[in-house]
TrEMBL record:
GO function terms (MF aspect): ATP binding; ATP hydrolysis activity
Family that this chain belongs to: Belongs to the AAA ATPase family. BCS1 subfamily.
Disordered as annotated region, ranges: 317-341
UniProt catalytic activity: ATP + H2O = ADP + phosphate + H(+)
Organism, scientific name: Phaseolus vulgaris (Kidney bean)
Transmembrane regions: none
Identification of the protein by name: AAA+ ATPase domain-containing protein
Any GO BP: response to stress
InterPro entries: AAA+_ATPase, AAA_N_dom, At3g28540-like_C, ATPase_AAA_core, ATPase_AAA_CS, Mitochondrial_chaperone_BCS1, P-loop_NTPase
A Pfam family recorded for this sequence: AAA_lid_At3g28540
């Protein structure tokens, strides 16, 4: 057969095939269409000297968005959006600028060490489950890279590595950090791709603005930074790249504020896990798999989240007298919010923290907060699970100086001496100090705010003295009054008045 005849035969075969294909697309069911698509691809790739690599947005069972896809997306948006003719515009970081990426079915070229490659962004629709299906069709997006066979080595060995590295760096730079939550009572529709809902994370707390002793602050910052740079170390010692922090202390001592400061220091996302809204251990695992790296998974008030404290004790102990109101409220909420109540168990939670699944993703902090560390099951907070225990306590003079600088822009003041003396004697939380330093009217100058704080400190000192002189009466009064604060304190003025009243009455 002559060369020209061969080309003619090939051309007409392809033309007939294309014609058939057009008809099929219009009239045939999805399965038949896919079959013909595959045949076309095989014929084309048999004759073509070009290689194609696809990067799909979701792989396999679609549990997680592909990191490779996201890196390609970032790389292309930074490097080739100038050459693309059809672009997609989206709000970028801080909603302050528009980010342009190539639109669907757009094709751009890129050059690497003199080699030309082509990228196409595309999508296919997955079939609906049945003709009556309620769920909409799912879009499966992907990028396709095309290059000549003779450059196979350079592309697969070095260009792709370059794309991934640059893409990841760009993503990190442009990342808009997010605060995720697994909303309580929220029914997860099966067509939805994630169990987490999110908003932009914009908490302003930093370690600089935290009232904490300087050495403690330095130690925590160093610990966090060392962790974030220890990928190779964790790989060498054969440990998953994650670290657990237990923050404990009375209410208002800055546990939640510290989580925000941690996230801001390391530029991590925050996953605020509401345990009472998690149906069972399987759902807990799904939630874990969906978290990304560079994130903090937070379980606040772990002692109240579920009945995790008493799992190893007998059932009868469950509602013992020792339990505080807060515990009971926590469990009640779990029952109500979760409808049937959460079936997450202690072993489920332990698996969540350091089971085999916990290693996926890497570079993650798990943070528990509690007001009552002594109530937690030791298994939950042993070293290795909760690697670092941080106790947050009452405000010190160093802490006060940070708050005075934050709230009043004061580094020194004649009243500081009095405050230094009183703050050493009183148990006052940073939250209370902050509240007193807050100007209450436009006329409140720094002197007035500091005087307010001195008043509050004097009351706290009196309450301390009272507690030490007649601890039983003090405790009884707190219980009778019902105004006991969560950390076991009664507002100083109330305690004083009531104790004086009792002493006067001789009771
Ligand atoms: N150490 C601190 N440094 C700076 N501000 C603080 C600190 N502790 C508390 N605050 C202030 O008090 C408020 C309450 O603090 P935060 O919510 O962090 O306390 P918490 O320990 O999480 O309390 P709870 O146990 O009730 O959840 C914060 O908004 C913050 O303004
Ligand atoms: Mg808190």
């Amino acid at each position: 057969m002559k060369m020209s005849e061969m080309w003619t035969t090939m051309g007409s075969t392809l033309a007939s095939f294309m014609f058939l294909w057009t008809i099929m697309r219009q009239y045939c069911p999805y399965g038949v269409q896919r079959f013909f698509e595959k045949c076309t691809h095989r014929i084309v790739s048999y004759f073509s000297p070009y290689i194609r690599i696809s990067f799909h947005e979701y792989m396999g069972d679609r549990l997680k968005r592909s990191e490779a896809y996201a890196a390609v997306e970032a790389y292309l948006s930074a490097n080739t959006s100038k050459s693309a003719k059809r672009l997609k515009a989206e709000m970028g970081k801080d909603s302050s600028n528009l980010v342009l990426t190539m639109d669907e079915y757009e094709r751009v070229t890129d050059e690497y060490e003199g080699v030309k490659v082509w990228w196409v962004s595309s999508k296919v629709m997955s079939p609906t489950r049945s003709p009556m299906s309620y769920y909409p069709e799912q879009e499966k997006r992907f990028y396709k890279l095309t290059f000549h066979n003779k450059y196979r080595d350079i592309i697969t060995e070095s260009y792709l590595e370059h794309v991934m590295r640059e893409g990841k760096e760009i993503r990190l730079r442009n990342r808009q950090r997010k605060l995720y939550t697994n909303s309580p009572g929220y029914k997860w529709p099966s067509y939805k791709q994630t169990m987490w809902s999110h908003i932009v994370f914009e908490h302003p707390a930093t370690f600089e603005t935290m009232a904490l002793e300087p050495e403690k602050k330095k130690e925590i910052i160093e610990d966090l930074v060392t962790f974030s740079k220890s990928k190779d170390f964790y790989a060498r010692i054969g440990k998953a790249w994650k670290r657990g922090y237990l923050l404990h202390g009375p209410p208002g001592t800055g546990k939640s504020t510290m989580i925000a400061a941690m996230a801001n220091l390391l530029a991590y996302d925050v996953y605020d896990l509401e345990l009472t809204a998690v149906k069972d251990n399987t759902e807990l695992r799904k939630l874990l798999i969906e978290t990304t790296s560079k994130s903090i998974i937070v379980i606040e008030d772990i002692d109240c989240s579920l009945d995790l404290t008493g799992q190893r004790k007998k059932k009868a102990d469950k509602l013992s007298d020792e339990e505080t109101d807060k515990d009971v409220v926590g469990r009640k909420e779990g029952k109500e919010e979760g409808g049937s109540g959460s079936k997450v168990t202690l072993s489920g939670l332990l698996n969540f923290i350091d089971g085999i699944w916990s290693a996926c993703g890497g570079e993650r902090l798990i943070v528990f907060t509690t007001n009552y560390v002594e109530k937690l099951d030791p298994a939950l907070i042993r070293r290795g699970r909760m690697d670092k225990h941080i106790q947050l306590s009452y405000c010190t003079f160093d802490g006060f100086k940070v708050l005075a600088n934050n709230y009043l822009k004061l580094e020194t003041h004649p009243l500081f001496l009095t405050i230094k003396r009183l703050i050493g004697e009183a148990n006052i939380t940073p939250a209370d100090v902050a509240e007193n330093l807050m100007p209450k009217s436009p006329l409140d100058d720094p002197h007035k705010c500091l005087s307010n704080l001195i008043e509050a400190l004097e009351e706290a000192v009196k309450a301390e003295e009272l507690e030490q002189s007649c601890p039983i009466e003090h405790e009884e009064l707190l219980q009778q009054n019902g105004s006991i604060k969560e950390n076991g304190e009664l507002p100083a003025d109330q305690a004083m008045n009531q104790c004086q009243l009792r002493l006067c009455n001789g009771t």
